[in-house]
Amino acid sequence: MTAAPPRVLTVAGSDSGGGAGIQADLKTMLALGVHGMSVITAVTAQNSLGVQGAWELPVEAVRAQYRSVVDDIGVQAVKTGMLASAELVEAVAGLIAGTDAPAVVDPVGVSKHGDALLAASALDAVRTELLPAATVATPNLDEAARLTGVRVLSEEQLPEAAAAVLAYGPKWVLIKGGHLDGDAVDLLTDGTEEHWLRAPRHDNRHTHGTGCTLASAIAARLAKGRTVPEAVADAKEYVTGAIAAGFALGGGIGPVDHGWALRKPYAAG
């Protein structure tokens, strides 16, 4: 009998188009050699053009899914994505704080198309409940600005944004600088160490699901026992390859290619 691989639980919304959310998370986990499990927090009607509708699940349904998986199967890492309301944020924060596994928090606020995925009223709960429970928080520049008020216009401002997020209590923060010009530069820090991660910017607009994919890749690496800096560096390499291989789908922004690593030489271990 084959031993079970490390297990990773994603707590996020469903993307009916398959490019982001739960679907992107599970594809990433499969590609990186872990067993992916899911707690669905919302159902969206979504395609390459945007989000046409979103329906939040009741807190009791989210809590039941989480307990069902964790109490029986167990987890080596948890990743959170779309948590639309303050009530969901508070409930999930409590669940991950009570779970003995690293937690990667992707504080999803707006979709790739500009559609709001987090109520403004939930921001305080993210700051005071969710971020303190995070092993790694992975905001992009827009999300960092919404949470802290720090607007990053250049690479030199990334440490300021990181410090502002760290003030809310995550152990590590990865500020994603992908919206800046030039190379794709991210900053990982715990307030003491700084790790700058650079990758060439690929001329490919099909980047739907990038944030979900990166956070899930970090969680997969943490579940395999990597340190946070190792996990983030590996995840950056994986998502850079996925962006390079992104493909057109529908009439808008296509997804990154989660399966690229299964077809090319790449150390998934």
Question: What is the CATH topology?
Answer: UDP-N-acetylmuramoyl-L-alanine:D-glutamate ligase
Tell me the number of structural domains: 1
Write out the CATH superfamily name: Ribokinase
Widest sheet: strand ordering? 3-2-1-4-5-6-7-8-9
Query: What is the percent of helical residues?
Result: 25-40%
On the 0 to 100 scale, the average pLDDT is: 91
Question: What is the string of SSEs from the N terminus onward?
Answer: EHEEHEHEHEHHEEEHHH
Largest sheet: 9 strands, mixed
CATH architecture: 3-Layer(aba) Sandwich
Distance between the termini: 20 Å
Strand content: 15-25%
Helices and strands in order, then pairings?
Elements: E1 7-15, H1 21-31, E2 35-47, E3 50-56, H2 59-72, E4 77-80, H3 86-97, E5 103-105, H4 123-130, E6 136-137, H5 141-148, H6 158-166, E7 172-176, E8 184-189, E9 194-199, H7 210-223, H8 228-244, H9 260-263
Parallel strand pairs: 1-2, 1-4, 4-5, 5-6, 6-7
Antiparallel strand pairs: 2-3, 7-8, 8-9
Helix pairs in contact: 1-7, 2-3, 3-4, 5-6, 7-8
Domain Pyridoxamine kinase/Phosphomethylpyrimidine kinase: 15-257
Function: Catalyzes the phosphorylation of hydroxymethylpyrimidine phosphate (HMP-P) to HMP-PP, and of HMP to HMP-P.
Catalytic activity: 4-amino-5-hydroxymethyl-2-methylpyrimidine + ATP = 4-amino-2-methyl-5-(phosphooxymethyl)pyrimidine + ADP + H(+); 4-amino-2-methyl-5-(phosphooxymethyl)pyrimidine + ATP = 4-amino-2-methyl-5-(diphosphooxymethyl)pyrimidine + ADP
